[in-house]
Specification:
Number of strands: 7
Distance between the termini: 35 Å
Strand order of the largest sheet: 3-2-1-4-5-7-6
Radius of gyration: 16 Å
Strand content: 15-25%
Helix content: 25-40%
Length: about 210
């Protein structure tokens, strides 16, 4: 929690409680259904929660916005973002049912009211949203092809609607076909920890 408060000092008491509860919940669920690698669970706040919140360094979702988290796994980046933006609606989708179950149970346990879940493949989700967020589930070109149908034409945020994903490593080649619509933000500019040296937030207007 110290790590989160270092970068997000203005969290409300409710948000602090919700973030603090995540560790025991994920430890417990991970022992039954493996959603985070066993070696990595100790790094939950740095590698998963804070990494998810890197998206907030690129955009502050306005109240009433809607966001789909595609390939959410155990709830990342959707659950940390839903805690940080309680007035934004998040829809978490994953093709693996047991992962959706973990994300649902964690969300219910901390009392999130702005999150819905769906066990489905990305191609099956037909609703539209202001943004789709994702954590490196597939190459950009494949992701954009799938989620183009899910981006709402109605604009209500400072950034035009589109895709925001968390990725690492060399992305110039992958982003080349979309270079006029793409911006990349290096998370090592925001977070000091070694883990973030190669991590980026990639935003593509759609």
């Amino acid at each position: 929690m110290k790590l989160l408060l270092k970068y997000f000092p203005d969290l409300t008491e409710e948000q602090r409680k919700q973030f603090a509860a995540l560790y025991e919940l994920y430890i417990d669920w991970n022992s039954k259904i493996n959603v985070i690698s066993r070696k990595d669970i100790e790094n939950l706040y740095e590698h998963h929660v804070l990494h998810s919140l890197g998206i907030a360094r690129v955009i502050r979702f306005r109240a009433g916005s809607s966001v789909m988290d595609l390939g959410t796994g155990g709830g990342f980046p959707g659950i940390p973002l839903a805690i940080l933006f309680p007035d934004t609606k998040f829809h978490l989708v994953d093709s693996i049912g047991k992962k959706v179950r973990v994300a649902t149970e964690v969300s219910n346990a901390i009392g999130l009211k702005n999150v819905t879940f769906r066990h489905a493949r990305a191609e099956e989700e037909k609703q539209t949203f202001d943004f789709v967020v994702s954590r490196a589930v597939m190459p950009l070109a494949d992701l954009i092809k799938i989620i183009r149908k899910n981006i709402s034409p109605k604009q209500q945020n400072a950034l035009p609607n589109g895709l925001i994903c968390l990725k690492g490593g060399e992305l110039e080649h992958e982003a080349m076909p979309f270079k006029h619509k793409t911006s990349m933000h290096n998370l090592n500019e925001d977070f000091d920890e070694e883990f973030f040296q190669t991590k980026k937030v990639v935003y593509v207007t759609i």
